[in-house]
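Researcher: Here's a chain I'd like modeled. Treat it as a single chain, no partners, no ligands.
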Amino acid sequence: MKIRLLITMLLIIAFSSTVFGADKYALIELNGSVNPVIADYIVNSIKKANQDNMQFVLMIMDTPGGLLNSMRDIIKAILDSEIPVIVYTYPKGAQAASAGGFIMIAAHIAAMSPGTEIGAMHPVSPFLNFSPDQKQNGIMEKKVLNDTVAYAKSLAELRKRNITWVEKAVREAISSTNNEALRLGVIDVVANDINDLLEKIDGKKIKTKDIYVVLKTKNIQQHQYTMDWKEKILNYFADPQMVFFLFLIAVVGIGFELKNPGMIVPGVIGAIALFLFLLAVKVLPINFAGLTFIILAIILFILELKFTSYGLLTLGGIISFIIGSMILFDSPLPGGQIPLTSIITVLIVLLLFIFVVVRAVIKVHTQKAVTGIEGMIGEKGEATIDFTGKGTVEVHGELWTAISDEPVKKGDVVEVIKMEGMVLYVKKVSQ
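Model: Modeled as a single isolated chain. Structure tokens:
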């Protein structure tokens, strides 16, 4: 009997220390766009924190948004966690925009530091449907919007947050400051820094997946989960803008090398950019219709150099480039697409490159040779004597032996049609 009682007490103590008595918390960071790489890091970190019996997870966040599927993966991990997940928009000036707003709403405790903002959760779908049927386009956009609203409201209901504000953040893309969000019941805490946050949440009772947990943060120790070097590299190149730049560098570099074999440097840079682009494509949801539009644009720009279209090919290329860039990534949330300012900037640089550098290269390759045998063909000179057959002419101030199939008189203007060795074959030019 005593042994059973002892075992029971030990199990209770072990259970209590596991659930309530942990003296460490896990620190993870979401800094930058929400993409598959950072989602895997966060999901794995939350699972690891649960396995390591951390008291709670503190996620420091500063994000403009990102990809819908990656956001949902993070939220699923938060909802499935046996320990509380606290999301803290930090430092000052940080934002929890778009996908970040959804993650904040899903947190067990949502906190913000002064000078931060939350919101702008409206889905954006430029050229969502290429059908000329505007009614069909409207239905698709409404479907995406209503689905996003329902998802946001379900999270707000679960965490007892302001459902009206959440719906407006999605439908109308409103944003709020940290103080507004606190006053409206969107978040739970405003804290100056991590120490201030730990002090303010001490003693809070939080319902996790299955149980209630009382947070004890006095003298608690921090244990940080960080990305390894591979994840950091992948995360750096998993940004939509970075992938966009890599693709253009690859196209320009390899195209330049093919046009001018042996230059080496453009080809090497283009090949490296292409490799990194293909690496990123495995991570990000690339829309290959967008890629096709961008490639078509580059082809149209180059054709403009070869054919006179009075700007029509260039205009078509600009339109194709903008459309392709805007639909290059499949994400209805802001932060998962390329900003219009970046598209315009790259377009200008690309046009300057093609119409200045490439034009100069094409001109060099097509201009007439001015030295050697090729340089003499087509040159004009003057006969120094009357001759039929062989005689002498002056070309470039030099006397040359010349052969003509027609009679030539002294002073006649002749044109070089062929050169063999040091002998010019000429024909008389009509005056």
